[in-house]
Amino acid sequence: MGYGAGNGHGLSGRRPYNPDQVVLQPDELWDAVRKQVITHPISAQALRPVADQSLNTVIGDRLKDFILREKLRPGDKLPTEGVLAERLQVSRTAIREAMRGLEALGMVEARQGSGRVVRDFNFDAILDSLTYGMVFHSHTIRQVTEVRKALDAFFADHMVANVSDADLAALDDLVADIQRLLRDGKTYEDDDYAFHRRLFEIAGNPLALQLFRITWEVRMSTGDPTFWQPPRSRSEVAIHANIVKALRARDAAATRMAMLAHYAYTDGLLAKKLAAEAAGMRETPSGRKPARNGTNGKHA
Asked: Where are the chain's structural domains?
């Protein structure tokens, strides 16, 4: 695949990309960098890292604009580092750093023998950062649970419309596995995940499947195991079986109700956690957390 038919703008805003003909406007690039440097009574050396970072950001923005303007598709090749460095009149190192930023965002990827290409969008590149930033407080778990409920409620109609006999058989097998594991006193987190993942696969929306994965990862990443260990109750078998029963009946309303009933345990747990956290905050001055190790808030 080439560099896209595009709309005739390319990186320069003039014509489609051609390795030998592309004309960029480096003056605009440097003007954009200069505008980000605010006059301040500190040394030029102290400002240098900010300027370097600003340059990388501007290069990255220009490359993203190129991808969008040229309407590049996943798999389309990007210009080489040498071409970009020459046309933008910056170092290859600066181009390389900007490309790494785009790789971290999941926009491009390096392929052996092909250079860098546009990547199909997904949440993989940001999933780790997202889960890390959301696992420290119970209220964030509650918010994630609310999002998950909304996904389940909305896509219940899609699941009913798309479910096949093979899907129902696979879900039946997973319910049987959960029942067996509970009977043997073993954990069933993997089967629980597989069950709900299958539901979103049935829904047929790839983005919804990615969002489900995010909500699951957030719950599994919390340091409190009570948030990710499902209850050791035989009622869990009935809860999952009721979802399959409603799907088999092609009843969207019953499916939605059965899926939302699945959250009764988590909702109760979150309510207790939030109440305990609120009580703890009220017991300390100015909402500060109690001091540890008897240091009265001072370092030992």
From this structure: 26-118, 126-287
Cα separation, 98 vs 164, whole angstroms: 46
Q: For residue 261, give Cα distances in angstroms to 163, 207, 241, 265, 266.
A: 20, 24, 12, 9, 10
> What's the predicted TM-score (pTM) here?
0.61
**Among candidate residues 144, 142, 80, 88, the one with its CA nearest the CA of residue 114:** 80
Determine whether 228 is exposed, middle or buried from the number of CB atoms within 10 Å of its CB (0-12, 13-18, 19+): middle
126-287 is classed in which CATH architecture?
A: Up-down Bundle (1.20)
Q: Between 284 and 267, where is the model more confident?
A: 267
Residue pair 219/227 in contact (Cβ under 8 Å)? The answer is yes
Cα 162 from Cα 258, distance rounded (Å):
17
Cβ partners under 8 Å of residue 238, min gap 6? none
**Cβ–Cβ under 8 Å, residues 72 and 13:** no
Q: What is residue 290's three-state secondary structure?
A: coil
In the chain, the percentage of residues whose pLDDT exceeds 70 is 65
98 token code pair? 């900007």
Q: What digits encode the pLDDT tens for the residues 180-220?
A: 998 888 888 899 999 999 999 999 999 899 889 888 887 77
Q: Give me the percent of the chain exceeding a pLDDT of 90.
A: 33
Fold of 26-118: Arc Repressor Mutant, subunit A (1.10.10)
